[in-house]
């Protein structure tokens, strides 16, 4: 009766206002109070603007599990002539309503997640249902794009129901066989989540996806804070679209990154206007209702948009054909269908609208496929703050904040941060400071070194505090495949015992999978530390070193050979037989040859010494021999002098190795590296055959060639006396060779890598610290630090000779392969000279035979016999050889008498006085000219 009176009053008011009444039904659960308010006052707002019709709300309440009562309430609404049914929000009761509405063809509008049935959507079954909640597959794709954008390689999913896991199917599908494992953990009704959180912490996982009911989120995060799972290295993504409505006041100062999604823009005018209507409407009803736009529930906003969309459909369809409600029955006997229902639903499917929750577009099944999601992040100052928008059209995340804003936010968070910086002892990076008498050192004052000054410089740029700690095992960090655990600095970071790790820690692929690194603050490579070979004793004959023994023997042979050849050819060549008295122009009976064996040896010796000689050959053949010898002597002398300076000023070393290839080819010299270091990892994982052989040799050598530190390796090289080489990084090697002059670097760099500051994976401070390192590099401070600790402090620069070349790089001997060409040229010249000499001799024989009128054979025998007589140095002029053989004796006597007359004349000239001597000299010069 009361209901009838209300309807009657409404009809009278409607008639009075001239508006037709169109009833709409809604079914709510008891906990949907805010959604009910949004529904009522959205209708009120519509009625204020509509001129021809008025929506009449009819609300019913059911339990989420009471299917019987739900069916009864729907049938009541149909009997009262409702033109649409909104809700309810549970999938069980909603399914019953949807089935009834389909039967009587009344539009059914829902605002909750509805999973796709097995086998896909049935268009017939979904013909009368419109869902404003984002379509499940599209929503899952949004979460997948967010995880990909965050570069999460591994993560743990915590869920509370099977429906929640179904919402994440796209996230599970992005995991490939080669990717890191994804952990999925389900929680039950037990409110103690600490054991689960501790298990996740023990696994080292720092990325967590929470797919749980909103009323469990805060309690789970509170307990995560208790077990140290809400630190800066953990990141959470909350999938609920209502997470922004929760009170995170007690958690917003946590250092974890907490991100969630929101379907509405809380800064828009529409939502502010809607909230105002809700508060004012309840105030007229003498009720207090307060809600801020930032805390409006998604369901409430969707009810508001659903009413607005439905009213638009009624208005536009009513303009062409008047929409009239009909009382319908659920009974099979009186079953009728509303003729306008299907038209309204189809119109809503093709209608594009924009509401509080953004653009509203449906597919053919009435699923909302186009919408925008705000990506919001919990901040200390403003609570949840919008950082990006996800666009479903291209699946792209568009950030609304700049990188500069992110950097400033991180820098601000660093102001009150005290970092625990882990390191290990090792000069010059970190060393214990020597105490003065009566001095007490504590905290960071206990240490000194490059690493300490580097982190101190970074802290001054970013404004944070730090505390240095030594890693207990003193190791860099390597992965044990048997135990599947890390050690050293890497383990210290994984256990969250430190925020940073700084030392000579090399950036490697294996370490990069476990921790993050900043940009390199120093570049380097692997090289070989070796002892300088002991210098050879001083040798008086070290001047012979530039030329090998073979070359010296060849030179001596060439020297003697050329001297003999010059002597023989000079006796055969007529041009080298000279008038002993050049001042006498009359015919002489004898000529002499100055080229005895001593003079020939002297000429060649003077040539090779570069000093020349006061006698020179005149015959063509002897000049050729002398010229070729001078050419040879010039080449040999220049080669000798070029190498002699190096040999006399540089100590000769007996370096037995010059590169890693030399080490790999021999077995006498052992070699090793620091156990568990990056150098050892380089050889173990290298595919280069030389390095593979070296690794096999190091691994199989007994006793072990590995050391615990660089200092141990250095001492082992010094004690090894050339029988041990140490493979280490070039920066540490340079530091050692600057202070230990008996050690040196062998060969170049085997690879190229860098030292970086390590931190836990996804540390929010990596970008800021990398920026500080880059700033120090650009300002030259990194170079200054290295110069200070490598070349100035604690004995740096002690050795004048820098270990940049191998010990075997001294000047090498010149072997026969180097100077053999000179001997070839010399031999060819000597051969040519010999041929010319023979031809010259034969020409002279022919000339003598003609002049002396003897046979050529007799002239050849006479000249050859004379040339082979080495004791004769003078030669008679051939003017009597034309006589017959019977007159040879008389000719011989005439020659003797002539020699006597010449001798008498010579004695007369000697006695002629000193005045004539000047004339002879002048005449001699004149004749020579």
UniProtKB/TrEMBL annotation:
Membrane-spanning parts: 551-570, 628-648, 822-843
Signal sequence, start to end: 1-18
Domain Ionotropic glutamate receptor L-glutamate and glycine-binding residues, every copy: 428-495
Superkingdom in the source lineage: Eukaryota
Low complexity bias locations: 882-892
Subcellular location: Cell membrane; Postsynaptic cell membrane
Protein name: Uncharacterized protein
Natural source organism: Aedes albopictus (Asian tiger mosquito)
Lineage of source species: Eukaryota, Metazoa, Ecdysozoa, Arthropoda, Hexapoda
């Amino acid at each position: 009766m009361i209901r009838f009176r209300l309807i009657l009053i409404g009809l009278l008011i409607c008639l009075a206002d001239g508006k037709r009444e169109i009833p709409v039904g809604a079914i709510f659960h008891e906990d949907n109070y805010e959604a009910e308010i949004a529904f009522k006052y959205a209708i009120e707002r519509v009625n204020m603007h509509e001129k021809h019709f008025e929506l009449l709300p009819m609300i019913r309440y059911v339990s989420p599990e009471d299917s019987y009562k739900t069916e009864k309430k729907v049938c009541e609404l149909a009997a009262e002539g409702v033109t649409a049914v909104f809700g309810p929000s549970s999938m069980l009761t909603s399914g019953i309503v949807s089935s009834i509405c389909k039967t009587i063809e009344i539009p059914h509008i829902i605002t909750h997640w509805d999973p796709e049935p097995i086998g896909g959507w049935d268009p017939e079954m979904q013909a009368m249902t419109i869902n404003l909640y984002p379509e499940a597959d599209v929503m899952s794709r949004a979460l997948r794009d967010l995880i990909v954008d965050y570069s999460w390689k591994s993560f743990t999913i915590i869920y509370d129901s099977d429906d929640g896991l179904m919402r994440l199917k796209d996230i599970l599908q992005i995991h490939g066989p080669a990717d890191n494992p994804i952990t999925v953990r389900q929680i039950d009704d037990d409110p103690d989540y600490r054991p689960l959180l501790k298990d996740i912490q023990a696994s080292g996982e720092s990325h967590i996806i929470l797919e749980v009911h909103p009323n469990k989120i805060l309690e789970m995060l509170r307990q995560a804070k208790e077990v140290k799972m809400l630190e800066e290295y953990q990141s959470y993504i909350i999938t609920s679209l209502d997470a922004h409505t929760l009170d995170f006041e007690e958690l917003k100062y946590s250092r974890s990154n907490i991100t969630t999604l929101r379907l509405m823009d809380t800064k828009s005018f529409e939502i502010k206007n809607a909230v105002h209507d809700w508060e004012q409407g309840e105030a007229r009803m003498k009720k207090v209702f307060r809600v801020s736009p930032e805390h409006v529930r998604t369901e409430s906003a969707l009810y508001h948009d659903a009413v607005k969309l439905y009213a638009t459909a009624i208005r536009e369809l009513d303009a062409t054909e008047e929409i009239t409600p009909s009382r319908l029955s659920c009974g099979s006997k009186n079953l009728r269908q509303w003729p306008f229902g299907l038209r309204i639903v189809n119109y809503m499917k093709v209608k594009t609208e924009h509401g509080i929750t953004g653009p509203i577009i449906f597919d053919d099944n009435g699923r909302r496929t186009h919408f925008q999601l705000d990506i919001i992040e919990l901040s200390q100052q403003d609570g949840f703050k919008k950082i990006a928008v996800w666009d479903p059209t291209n699946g792209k995340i568009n950030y609304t904040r700049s990188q500069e804003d992110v950097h400033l936010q991180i820098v601000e968070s660093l102001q009150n941060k005290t970092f625990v910086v882990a390191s290990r002892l090792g000069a010059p990076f970190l060393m214990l400071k020597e105490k003065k008498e009566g001095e007490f050192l504590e905290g960071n004052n206990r240490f000194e070194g490059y690493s300490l000054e580097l982190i101190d410089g970074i802290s001054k740029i970013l404004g944070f505090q730090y505390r240095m700690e030594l890693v207990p095992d003193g190791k860099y960090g390597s992965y044990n495949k048997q135990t599947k655990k890390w050690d050293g600095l890497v383990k210290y970071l994984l256990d969250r015992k430190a925020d940073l790790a700084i030392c000579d820690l090399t950036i490697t692929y294996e370490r990069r999978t476990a921790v993050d690194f900043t940009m390199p603050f120093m570049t380097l490579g692997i090289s070989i530390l070796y002892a300088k070979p002991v210098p050879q004793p001083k040798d008086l004959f070290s001047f012979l070193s530039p030329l090998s023994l073979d070359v010296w023997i060849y030179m001596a042979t060439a020297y003697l050979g050329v001297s003999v050849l010059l002597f023989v050819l000079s006796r055969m060549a007529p041009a080298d037989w000279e008038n002993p008295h050049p001042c006498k122009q009359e015919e002489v009976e004898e000529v002499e040859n100055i080229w005895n064996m001593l003079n020939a040896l002297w000429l060649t010796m003077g040539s090779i010494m570069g000093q020349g000689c006061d006698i020179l050959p005149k015959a063509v053949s002897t000049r050729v021999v002398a010229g070729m010898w001078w050419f040879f002597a010039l080449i040999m002398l220049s080669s000798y002098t070029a190498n002699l300076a190096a040999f006399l000023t540089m100590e000769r070393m007996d370096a037995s190795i010059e590169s890693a290839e030399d080490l790999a080819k021999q077995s006498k010299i052992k070699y090793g590296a620091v156990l568990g270091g990056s150098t050892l990892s380089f050889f173990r994982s290298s595919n280069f055959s030389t390095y593979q052989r070296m690794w096999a040799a190091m691994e199989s050598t007994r006793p072990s060639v590995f050391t615990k530190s660089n200092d141990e390796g250095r001492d082992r090289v010094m004690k090894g006396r050339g029988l041990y080489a140490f493979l280490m990084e070039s920066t540490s090697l340079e530091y050692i060779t600057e202070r230990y002059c008996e050690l040196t670097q062998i060969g170049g760099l085997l690879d190229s890598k860098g030292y970086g500051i390590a931190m836990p994976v996804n540390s929010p401070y990596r970008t800021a610290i990398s920026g500080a390192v880059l700033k120090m590099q650009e300002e030259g401070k990194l170079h200054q630090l290295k110069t200070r600790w490598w070349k100035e402090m604690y004995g740096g620069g002690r050795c004048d000779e820098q270990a940049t070349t191998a010990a075997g790089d001294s000047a090498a001997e010149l072997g026969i392969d180097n100077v053999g060409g000179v001997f070839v040229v010399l031999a060819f010249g000597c051969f040519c000279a010999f041929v010319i000499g023979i031809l010259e001799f034969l020409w002279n024989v022919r000339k003598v035979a003609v002049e002396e009128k003897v046979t050529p054979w007799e002239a050849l025998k006479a000249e050859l016999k004379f040339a082979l007589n080495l004791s004769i140095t003078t030669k008679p002029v051939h003017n009597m050889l034309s006589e017959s053989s019977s007159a040879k004796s008389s000719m011989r006597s005439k020659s003797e008498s002539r020699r006597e007359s010449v001798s008498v004349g010579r004695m007369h000239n000697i006695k002629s006085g000193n005045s004539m001597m000047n004339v002879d000299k002048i005449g001699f010069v004149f004749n020579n000219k």
